[in-house]
């Protein structure tokens, strides 16, 4: 793209536009299109080479979405009317094709500058504009800045001793080589058992010479329920799509199901079993966000949900040692307060002679050597290929690494070292006319991505439109409103079991990151109401 520099259009030097959007994933593309519809001149800066956001970076073996389609797609009729999927849980390759289709229908790329990494961004109060700089030295000015960098923009690689000594092949899950890695007959390791680690293990078990999973915490994975979809089946359902996209915003997580109206022990034991098997057999996140309404708040109810899960999973694992590590009788933390992965045959992998698991709580990783990983017991485990599936600087990493400077001269990176502070999960005090979505203090990881993005994206576009109507130079969230929002975020989570466990919801794995709720835990419908409520009178904003 370098040769497009200095030309007209999104790659131009000294770009001067209404809105600069950072990130070309689900959020950025949604905002761009909705802004264009309202007559704004908007451009996307994207660090990668194409549309698709997380689905361009996360191309590790087996990468597949854990929200079902058509929930996991845009509600735009012009896009869904001519698009069908091959399965209800598409992999990253099919999701990339989907973005190609979105581009074909909406001509998104004509307003995108790829390989454009934002390194400086500062709002000039006098002028009422953001000044933005990219890594290759281009500059842009825009009245509004929309940060759609996603919750997983900054990968996290633990500081393992001797990591750079390893002579074999090693990659982080979110930076897997485009051409893949041939593991046939090779000795492989997977570090981490989040969604990425689980999916890699499933993919490698049948083909690799050996797979060793380094587990710190078991993943309470539930059956995905993946199945093929026919074109006819999907076309016949399309008449319901408009209703369905309305409905998903009325459900807690932006899926097409929500929590039961009952508490766990309102049902008899037999009724509970029947209900749980129904969720289990349906698959997907229904056992998580469609379960009894009290189980994420009440320890006894949660234990019953865990015991059902453990009973079903333990029955699938032959080796007693592996069984106790993957699905222990005593849960290490409440069920569902860490995001469960959707699995297809994860547990069966451990019935293969070539797949093993190491409990790194009991036997931690000491160091990497030229040939493998040495554990505390002194054993050297030799590998040809290692997948580092240790996650991200979750939720805030994208925003804190784009050189954002406040009107008070501070940087977001410094300000958020101790803790993230936003107003409504869409704005940050001291950063006027900046909006973010699918990031900190919104529904984000507790929701279906496209649902969150559409609720927040529409709000952002309506806010900008209202500002223009009222001839405002800028709006800035007040510190008082920010404090109240934080209190609200914590109150929503403190009544639940979420704070009892270090998880991506509570800041993730990155050492030193604040142990605090990163998402809005009140559900999408309530969230949408609350952010809308701020608009009529600019509640919580200073307007200039
Ligand atoms: O990362 P994670 P991810 N030594 O942070 C372990 C979503 N996603 O890439 O649990 C050893 O979840 C850590 O252990 P512990 C996904 O939903 C979705 O898998 O902290 N291990 C954990 O097991 C999630 O929200 C999809 O004890 C270390 C793992 O690494 C987000 O993206 C696919 C360690 C990290 O798990 C990130 O998921 C992929 C260390 N020093 C991801 N540090 C789908 O749509 C951390 N770990 C299917």
TrEMBL record:
Keyword Transferase in annotation: no
Keyword Oxidoreductase recorded: yes
Lineage top rank: taxon: Eukaryota
InterPro entries xref list: FAD-binding_Monooxygenases (IPR050775), FAD/NAD-bd_sf (IPR036188), Flavin_mOase-like (IPR020946)
Cofactor(s) the protein needs: FAD
Keywords: FAD, Flavoprotein, Monooxygenase, NADP, Oxidoreductase
Pfam families: FMO-like
PANTHER family on file: L-ORNITHINE N(5)-MONOOXYGENASE-RELATED (PTHR43098:SF3)
Similarity comment text for this entry: Belongs to the FAD-binding monooxygenase family.
Name assigned to this protein: FAD/NAD(P)-binding domain-containing protein
Native species: Cryomyces antarcticus
Lineage: Eukaryota, Fungi, Dikarya, Ascomycota, Pezizomycotina
């Amino acid at each position: 793209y370098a040769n497009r520099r200095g030309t007209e259009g999104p790659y131009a030097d000294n770009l001067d536009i209404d809105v600069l959007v950072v990130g070309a994933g689900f959020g950025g593309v949604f905002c761009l299109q909705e802004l264009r519809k309202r007559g704004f001149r908007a451009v996307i800066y994207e660090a990668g080479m194409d549309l698709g956001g997380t689905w361009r970076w996360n191309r590790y073996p087996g990468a597949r979405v854990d929200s079902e389609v058509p929930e996991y797609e845009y509600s735009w009729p012009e896009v869904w009317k001519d698009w069908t999927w091959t399965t209800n849980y598409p992999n990253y390759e099919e999701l990339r094709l989907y973005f190609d289709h979105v581009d074909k229908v909406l001509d998104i790329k004509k307003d995108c500058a790829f390989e454009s990494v934002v390194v400086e961004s500062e709002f000039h109060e006098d002028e009422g504009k953001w000044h933005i700089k990219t890594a290759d030295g281009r500059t842009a000015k825009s009245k509004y800045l929309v940060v759609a960098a996603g919750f997983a923009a900054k990968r996290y690689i633990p500081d393992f001793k001797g990591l750079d000594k390893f002579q074999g092949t090693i990659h982080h899950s979110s930076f897997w080589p485009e051409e893949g890695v041939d593991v046939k007959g090779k000795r492989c390791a997977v570090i981490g058992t989040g969604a990425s680690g689980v999916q890699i293990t499933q993919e490698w078990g049948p083909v690799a010479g050996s797979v060793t999973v380094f587990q710190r915490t078991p993943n309470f994975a539930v059956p995905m329920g993946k199945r093929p979809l026919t074109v006819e089946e999907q076309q016949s359902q399309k008449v319901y799509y408009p209703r369905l996209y309305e409905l998903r915003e009325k459900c807690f997580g932006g899926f097409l199901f929500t929590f039961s109206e009952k508490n766990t022990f309102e049902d008899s034991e037999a009724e509970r079993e029947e209900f749980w098997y129904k969720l289990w057999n349906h698959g997907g996140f229904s056992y998580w966000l469609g379960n009894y309404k009290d189980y994420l708040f009440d320890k006894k109810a949660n234990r019953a949900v865990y015991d059902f899960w453990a009973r079903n999973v333990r029955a699938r694992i032959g080796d007693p040692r592996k069984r106790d590590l993957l699905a222990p009788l005593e849960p290490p933390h409440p069920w569902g307060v860490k995001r469960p992965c959707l699995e297809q045959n994860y547990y069966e992998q451990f019935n293969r002679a070539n797949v093993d698991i190491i409990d790194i709580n009991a036997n931690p990783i000491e160091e990497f050597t030229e040939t493998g990983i040495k554990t505390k017991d002194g054993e050297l485990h030799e590998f040809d290929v290692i997948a580092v599936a240790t996650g991200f600087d979750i939720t805030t990493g994208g925003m804190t690494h784009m050189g954002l400077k406040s009107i008070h001269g501070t940087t977001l990176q410094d300000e958020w070292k101790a803790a993230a502070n936003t107003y409504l999960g869409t704005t940050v005090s001291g950063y006027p006319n900046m909006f973010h979505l699918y990031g900190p203090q919104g529904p984000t990881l507790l929701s279906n991505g496209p649902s969150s993005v559409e609720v927040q994206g529409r709000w952002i576009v309506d806010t900008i439109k209202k500002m223009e109507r009222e001839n405002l130079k800028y709006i800035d969230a007040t510190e008082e409103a920010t404090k109240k929002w934080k209190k609200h975020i914590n109150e929503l989570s403190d009544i639940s079991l979420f704070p009892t466990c270090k998880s991506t919801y509570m800041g993730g794995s990155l050492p030193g990151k604040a142990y605090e709720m990163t998402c809005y835990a009140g559900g999408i419908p309530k969230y949408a109401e609350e952010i809308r409520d701020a608009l009529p009178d600019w509640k919580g904003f200073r307007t200039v």
